[in-house]
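USER: My hope is that you can spare some time for a protein that puzzles me. I am handing you a single protein, as its sequence and its fold in token form. Walk me, if you will, through where the backbone shape changes along the chain. The protein I mean follows directly.
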Amino acid sequence: MIDAFKIIRIHMTIKILNHFYIGCLLFQQRTFTWHCDIINCYLERVMKSVLHNSASVYQDPYFNLEKPVAEVKRIIESLLPAATPVFMQEGGGVINLQLLNKNEGGLSVILLLKGKINFIRKSSGGILFGTADAPSVFGLLGSSFKAEVFKYVAVGDCDVYVLPRDMAIDIINEHNLCRDVFNYHAYISDMEVKYSNRLINQTPYGIVCAILCELAALPESIRLKTGIAKFIIERSHIRRSTMMKILADLRDGEYVDIQYGKLIRIIKNFPKFY
């Protein structure tokens, strides 16, 4: 986007200089600096217009959040010797954090070595709040409240380990990994804001666009096996008829390529308003 703005600015500068060259010849009593000031003023107005127009399309500001994998791996490497495996049923299933906490005599930390975990909000009718892929660590900055709000569901073939939170904190301090924990939780905080922003004060259209951006970011091998309708319904309270109408309009407007209920690609940025 920045490169495009540079190109526009250069192009506009050349065009305006051509016009002002004649002005310089006609008004030789004026200094060229005076004309440069006018050029800069005009360019600022042009660029503001370009920026305003670019903001008229829907874009996901969190599209490029990058997970600090190296930090996560160091945290898991330090905690794993003290952790115990959680035996999951075939195909995944609910991780009973309340039972784990009771058995451990306090809060637990979850280590996800393989697979992925879905976070389901119990208080929102079972909305899928977010998904975390391995490697991941949960619960270092957790609380009893958070443990009651979310249900953790392992998906597919997962390797999950747990250990008491107090023990995990002691190990983190012993290995001087506080900086890694803070960097990792900054990422987690951003992800929570991303998922919350997807639903809070959003129109059905805005929610559909945000979830489509999320779906488009998945690897092609997963995306082409994922039904759009189910993916959106799991993550929102939008009525199916409303969702299907929005998807049909986006497809008719050639904003998305949808085939057999699967998202092939997002062709161009979505309009800000529906």
The chain has a mean pLDDT of 76. The chain has three domains: 2-55, 69-195, 204-271. The longest helix spans residues 2-26.
